[in-house]
Structure formats: C-alpha cells, structure tokens
Amino acid sequence: MIYDYLIVGAGIAGLYAALNIPSNKKTLILAKDPLWECNTFYAQGGIATAVDSDDVALHIEDTLKAGAGLCNREAVEILSRNSIAVIEDLLARGFEFDTDEKGNLLFTKEAAHSRARILHAGGDATGRELHRFLLQQTEATVLEGVVVIDLLIEDDIAYGVCVRQGAREFTIYAKNISIASGGIGSLYEYHTNAKMISADLQGIAAMRGLPLKDMEFTQFHPTVFVYNTRARKYLLTEALRGEGATVVDERGERFLFEYDPRGELAPRDIVSRAIYRHQKKGHKVYLNFSAFNEEFFKKRFPTIYRNFQNLGFNVPKEQVPISPAFHFIMGGIATDTWGRVEGMQNLYAIGEVACTGVHGANRLASNSLLEGLVFSKRAVEDSLINEFSYTPKEFAIEKRQLVKSEDAKFKSLLRKTMWEKVGIIRKPSELQEAKDIVTQIANKPIGYLLRLRLASALAIIEAAIARKKSVGAHYIEEEGGV
Ligand SMILES: Cc1cc2nc3c(=O)[nH]c(=O)nc-3n(C[C@H](O)[C@H](O)[C@H](O)COP(=O)(O)OP(=O)(O)OC[C@H]3O[C@@H](n4cnc5c(N)ncnc54)[C@H](O)[C@@H]3O)c2cc1C
C-alpha cells in the first residue's frame, strides 16, 4: 500500500500536520515507543504567540534579537503572523489554555520576551495537555514502536522509509513524507529531552546527503535538576524565573547580576554560562522559590510541585540544586519556509528536526511549540497546492547490523564527549578532540544505529569548528579560559 502522507514523529509537529491533512487522504504517523515519550509531552512553560496584531512586530523583534542576527527574517515573520491563527484554531477545536475566573486567557512572561505572551495549560503541563489533545483529535493511523532507520531517496524524490519494528525490518511507501522526529537530546550526557530523542533522522539526513544547517547552535537550559539517575534530567521551567524564582549560590547570593544586569531574566545562554562559570569557581547553585506562597505554587506549577515533592524537596519552601543541561537544537535539516527539505520535491521537515532559520543562533523561549504548529500546517498546505506526481519505486532492504555488543560503551563516551567538549563553553582544541573521538568511534565495529548518532554529532562538531566567533548559543572561548 502507498500512503498519501507518511509522518515520522508524533510530537506537536507531526500531530498538527496530520490534523491539517484532508481526511480523505491515507495518512500514517510513525513514532517510537512509548507514544508519549517525546519532547512535546515534557514541554512545561507554554507556547509563545503574538497577543494581538499590535504585538506581532514586537514578537518578531524579540525573536530576531534572541537569534543574534542570524534568523531568517521571512521565517520569523511567518511564525509570528501565523501565531494568532494557529492558537485560534486550537481553541476552536476545543483546546483549553489556562484562563482567569472570567475566562480570559492567561499570558505569562519568559526571558527575553518584551511582554507577557506565553499561553499555558494545566499550569506547567502545556506539552502534556497539547499532546493528549492532538492525539485525541487525530484521525490518522498512528503506529508506535516503529523506528525509522532509513529514508528511501533517489535524486530529489523520497519514496518511503525503512523501519524496524521489534526484530522486523520493512519498507513503507508514501507520496509525501514529513520528518517530524524532534531534536538530538540523547547525544549529550546531561539533557532535558525525552529518552527516545536521539538524532536518528538528522543522522540519516547526513548520511543521505540531505542538507543540515545551523547545527552548531545548541541551546542549554540553565535551570535543570541533573542529579537524578534517569537519562532525562528534570527541567525547572523558565516561567518560574519569569514569575519570581531566583538563582542563588550556597551563600544565598543572587550572583547572576555579576554577569548580566538582567539577572534571572537575561537570555538562557547568558544565564547558562553564568551558572556554569560560577560552578567552575566551586560554587553550588540553587533555584530559590521564596517569592511564592505554597498555594499559588501548587496551582501554577503542579507538575514541578508533585515531581520535586516526590524527589524529597519541600518546594516552594526548599530550594533545589540546579545546573545547566542540553535542551534544544536550533539547527536541523535545512528547509524553505514551507517546510520543504532543500533540494527535494516531496520531502518535508517540520518541528525541532527542521531548520527554517526561524531561531537563528538562539531560540526565544516558547517559540518552538509555536514553530511546530505554524510550519507543519504550511508543509501540508504546500503539499496540497503543489501536488506531487508520484511514480512508485521499490527499494531492497539494506543488510546491516543495527546494534553491536560494544555500542552502549561508545554511546556513553559520545555523550560525555559532547557534554564536555561541545557544550556550553567551547574551545577550538576541545572541538578538534571531540571530532577525533567521534572519528575513532566510527572506525570501531559498531552498529548502524550508533553510526546515525555519530553522523549527527559530527555535523554539530564540524559546524562548531567552522564557526570561529561566538554568536548566540555558540560560545567559543580562547584557550586558557574556564
Ligand atoms: C523538558 C522540555 C520542556 C520544554 N518546554 C517548552 C516550552 O515550554 N515551550 C516551547 O515552545 N518548547 C518547549 N520545549 C521544546 C519543545 O517541547 C520541542 O522543541 C517540541 O515539542 C518538539 O516537537 P516535535 O514535534 O518537533 O518533536 P517531539 O515532540 O520531540 O516528537 C518527536 C517524535 O518523533 C519520533 N521519532 C524520533 N525518532 C524517530 C525514529 N527514528 N523513528 C520513528 N519515530 C521517531 C518520536 O517518537 C516522537 O514521536 C521543551 C522541551 C523539553 C525537552
């Protein structure tokens, strides 16, 4: 069977794309296992939107400023101009953002936004609520536990994908393919991402010669509880600082002001670097919630309240030790502003896996859920306007061993290397060392899935080596510094 649409990924980008596909089209969504294990599910703070048409210009300005001059202005304008319509669409479909007693939408403020324009749901469970809602709405067939391991591409046409389900490998064909497989969190030792987010499709893109762009721009979230044993570390949303939480050291000093006059409300990369440097000087760093009363905290941040109470922290009375951790990648598979992969006719990339240039060198907080909505809708619109005439073609499944015995050991080495040498503060010599380590691992007898991770990591490292000057989230320090 040949599907009309095949979507790789069931996060916000994949699910919202599916909602915009006419119901007479055969649409299949593929996701890893379990279905909820995606970054969308874990998004806490909310979704940015222009509050009204008067706010569009300011939202654009804030986004461009955060992107440090490297945004694609057209993409940013599209993002903001379409924000009100996609939010209205969600509301019309019945999604409930948090409101006040009179039913007015509640907007909050996050770092580097000039005004309160972040909508949230379930307090701090915006992603979980959105994910559940979009899954309920979809009429497409959703298959979980199916891992895409290759794209079936010839010239500028994508014919389908090769997948693994359990021990089986098989091909699936479709007239239009959208990659919505999210970011790269599992490449780093400390990260906030869902465990399954492991840069598979960025790796396939690199191996198949599809263009990757802005891969050096990786964002580190400043306030993460990294002391749990799970792969995914617990994020403490930016909205906490927006609403009064402070960053202090073991002496109770709000040291961020030593690094930037905006203190807690400086952009994330500045706050991350300040915390990182302060830690390197031997300090311990905490997020302090004394500005909140318990009732408010419990209602506004119920997930954080529950999770941290379960971890043994009496929040908001007790402060929580924090550290920065990898969070989001601005770069990805290069697309135009319709989500179409550069150089391809019927292949789209949407959401975090894509690079339209909308984030430039640094993402403005809460613009990524919005990106997932706006650009996935546009990708579907483009595919409907420019209907692709598809001639079926069959591909043989390549013989390759997906996993080998020593992969786990090399995966850990990769994660450590990325964290230590391709992290918050980068040095030219360490980037080169990281490249050498990745190349050495690639020369070992390793499984194909690990090769995909290595290909993604190499794309990040090479882009970081090529960008000699600090900009946005990419921070290069001369030898001898911290
Ligand atoms: C803890 C946390 C908090 C965040 N908070 C916010 C926030 O408040 N506001 C905001 O705007 N952004 C936030 N972000 C970022 C935002 O959540 C993500 O950028 C966004 O959800 C990405 O959506 P997506 O649809 O592109 O990918 P995801 O939601 O990550 O979904 C990826 C999908 O691809 C599937 N997949 C991956 N690889 C394969 C494969 N090989 N084969 C088959 N399927 C595959 C996965 O199973 C999953 O279904 C947060 C991120 C994290 C981690």
Characterization of this structure:
The chain contains 15 helices and 19 strands. With 482 residues, it is an alpha/beta fold. It has a domain of 101 residues: Flavocytochrome C3, Chain A, domain 1 (Alpha-Beta Complex). Strands 1, 2, 6, 7, 8, 9 and 18 form a seven-stranded mixed sheet that branches. It has a three-stranded antiparallel sheet with strand order 3-5-4. The longest helix is centred in the last third of the chain and has 19 residues. It starts with a strand and ends in a 16-residue tail after the last helix. The mean pLDDT is 96. Flavin-adenine dinucleotide binds next to helix 1, strand 2, helix 2, helix 6 and strand 7.
